[in-house]
Structures are given as C-alpha cells and as structure tokens.
Amino acid sequence: MNSATQTLRPQLERVRRAWRGSPLPAFLDWWSGELRTLLPVRWQGFFSGGNVWCLLRHDNGEWQVRRSGQPQASAPWSDALDAPSQQSALGAAVAGVDSQDLRLALCLPQELVLRRRLLLPDAARDNLRQIGAFEMDRQTPFRTDQVYYDLRELPGPAPSGRIAAELIATPRAVVDARLDLLRHAGIAIDAVDLCEGDKRLGVNLLPPGVARVHRDPRRRLNLALAGAAALLLLLSLGQWLHNRDDALAAMQTQVDDMHADAQKVSELRKQLEDSAGASGFLARRKTDTVAVVDILQDLTTRIPDDTWLERFTVDSSGHVGMQGQSAKAASLIDALQSSKLLTGANFQGVIQRDPATNKERFFMDAQVRAPSNAKPAASSSTGAAR
After folding, report:
1. Can you tell me where the transmembrane regions are (predicted)?
2. Residue 268: how many CB atoms within 10 A of its CB?
3. Which stretches of the chain drop beneath a pLDDT of 50?
4. Residue 193 has what DSSP assignment?
5. Does domain 49-215 fall into CATH 3.30.160?
6. Measured over all CA atoms, what is the biggest interatomic distance in the chain, rounded to whole angstroms?
7. 36 three-state secondary structure
C-alpha cells in the first residue's frame, strides 16, 4: 500500500494543484456562502463546515492566536505555563470553532524566513519540492538538511514555457525551538507558515510526520451518504429498467392481442368474401339459367291440345328431352320453331303409332336458349305485341 501511495502521490498532487488553480474553488465557496445565508441563523453554523485556520504566533515568550482573515487576536498567554493551562488558554482562544474543523498554523516572523523568486520550466510544476531541494544550494547559503523549506507556484503571468515560483526556507533551529515549546504544552499543529497581514501565506514548512493526525467522523458519514446515494442511484436505474421492461411486456401483450384480433378480422373478411362469392355465384347462376317452370309454361302454350308429354327432362347443360304422344307429331317441330326459350328442336329416332291410343309416339330433343339471347327476344316480342 505504501509503494502504491508513493506512486500515486505525484498524480494526486497534480490534481490538487489543478483544482486549486481553477476558478471552481472560489465559485463553490461563494455559492455555498450565498446558500448558507438563506438558512436560519441557528442552522448556518451547522452548515458552515470546512477547515478553519487559526494562526498561532510566538513573540517575547507569549503565545497569541487569531483566525485567518480576522484582525483581532486573542489574549496572550505565557509559554512558561504548564501544559493544561496553555491548552485551556488555547481552547478559550478558539472557542466557537468545531474541533473537527480547527486547523492550527504556526506563523513565523518575516525576518526569520528567506524567500527567493524563481523562474522554472513548465515540467517542474509536478515536482516543485524536489526542484526546491535542487535549487537550495544555488539560491541560499544553506544546505537542504539545514532548513525547512517549501516551494509554491506564484499566480500571475510568466514567460512562455516557464512558471513563476517562490522558494521559502527557514533554519531548522528556529522552527525546532518553537515546536519544542508546543510539544511541552501538549499542542499539536497542522502547518508552519508565514503571516501576510492577517492571513497565512499558504505554504507548509512543517517537517513530515510532525503534523497532527485528524480523525474526521464526518468523513465516514459522508462516505456512507455517498455510498447510500450511489446505491439509491443504482436502485432507481434498476427500477427504471424494470418499469421499462414491464411497459415493453405490456406493449408486447397488446400487440399480440391486436395481432390475434387482426387474424380474426382477416378470417371474418375471408368468410364474408367467400359468402359474397357464393351468393354472387348463385345470383349469376340464377341469372344465367332459364327456369324450368318457364320452359314448361312455354311448351304448354305451344304444343296442341291433342299432344301430351309422358317424360320431360332438363340437365345442367340446358339439354331438354321430351317423350310423349301426339295426333300429328310432325307438326311439333313447327310449333317449337317460334319458341323464345328452346332452340334446335329435333326428333330422336322414328315416330311410331301406339295401337292402344292411336297416337304417334315421339322422342324429341331441344336446347335451352341462353338468357342473354332469350330475354332480348322476349323484349322485342313484347314490343311487337304492343
């Protein structure tokens, strides 16, 4: 884990510098402050989280504390007091600040610190501390093991391809003497910095491993809340997918039902078409066929009274067969010549006399005229009669 942390540290530092150099932190601070002012006064303190830096200064054997950005300072106390008394004095000086948000910075006087402005290549931005160690012998009369130092990037314009930075160093003896006093008082700090007016400069000369360790219980709560938010997001996405699947299944069911209804409608349409075709066929058949009753009526009208039929047949092709007896069978051909329903009347076989009735027995064939041929003739005959 330590090797992995060492490997990721340059990348993390690069991300931190990019974040601090972007306008987003200032915007978020302003935005959160504006939102906080909309809350009730009792709630504003609860939502005013974040690090609160308090600057600790030592001058003439006395300690003094003030918040960063505020000009007023606390009442001083002597470094000769015992540890509980100094801790009580510090607690009174930082009263009102949440212990989880409290950050203490030891501020050094400007005269005890050496500051050098440097112009470095852009590539040095990711390794400023290493560059500071390399430049220490060239920019200061000290060696690296004689000072505590830090290197910060300066805001503002710089030549193309280079960055402006500031090397800040102070002899270790100066810092160690004050750290010993704080250690004797049982006070742990978070940074060693410089004061510019009523604010800290923003560097940290504190040796590694000396800064106090903060255990923030709210971090666990924030992580738990973030995990819960991620879980709720996943659940909402899963619910959305589930609802979409249900809607898709419902739509598929409706489509299947509509498809079944369409099949039923298609079958009903086909049955209707078949029924219409059958009824049309019967209508056409009725129209294209001469009724047998009409043929019988026509024959009754035309054959003489001394003639009768013993058998009469009509097949599907319109062939008519007649068998009977008549006093003069030969005259039947002339009687049927003027028929509008029959044509091609002719005897089949020979005409024979029946000894019992003294009539001539005959067998005759004829063909039913097509309705298209029969009806116009009938119409013309009716017109002539008129």
Report:
1. 221-241
2. 10
3. 1, 375-386
4. E
5. no
6. 175
7. helix
